[in-house]
Amino acid sequence: MFPKATVLFGNHDLLIKRKAKTAGLSDQFLRNFGDILEAPKSWDFKLEVIKDNVKYTHGTTGNAIKVARDSRISTCQGHLHTQTFVEWSVSEKDAIFGLQVGCGLDRDKYAFEYAKPFNKKPIISCGIILERGTLPMVKLMPL
What is the pTM of this model? Predict the structure, then answer.
């Protein structure tokens, strides 16, 4: 369905690479991530991408508005399963936003078993950015 795509690595995707490095193994011993997923060769795997002055990243440090304020570039990210929002930061020079998307997983499945005792539950949502990076929106999935 998607012959061309840019796929962003998440913290769990990079776990194998971090473990290999800790063990002293070279990247040459690791299979290409696209090969593991049997993804089309035309898919591009990256840590982050900037398009229309918006940074797209999985995220690892802070939520989207914190990352946007620190770098002064609008940012769309995931990583935090229990948060979803659009928040703006305006200065004398610019107006930027942080778009935080929740997640796309079923909290009743085994992969999310570790979070069952947590008070906060995952938010199933999708981020949409239109008008060449100037119109951010969040849509919640009806549960």
Answer: 0.86
Between CA 65 and CA 10 the distance in angstroms is 18
CA end-to-end distance (rounded Å), the chain: 26
> Cα–Cα distance between 6 and 47 in angstroms, integer?
10
Residues 54 and 67: their CA atoms lie apart, in Å, by 12
Give the 3-state secondary structure of residue 107.
Answer: coil
Q: Is 66:57 a contact under the CB 8 Å cutoff?
A: no
Q: Identify the three-state secondary structure at position 115.
A: helix
Question: Could you give the CA distance from residue 58 to residue 142 in angstroms, rounded to a whole number?
Answer: 23
15 in Cβ contact with 33 (< 8 Å): no
> Could you list the pLDDT tens digit for every one of the 143 residues in the chain?
899 999 999 888 888 888 888 999 888 888 888 898 899 999 999 999 999 999 999 988 889 999 999 999 999 999 888 899 999 999 999 999 999 998 877 777 777 777 778 788 888 899 999 999 999 999 998 76
Looking at the chain, how many residues does it have? 143
Domain range annotation of the chain: 1-46, 47-143
**Could you identify the residue written with the tokens 């020079």?**
93
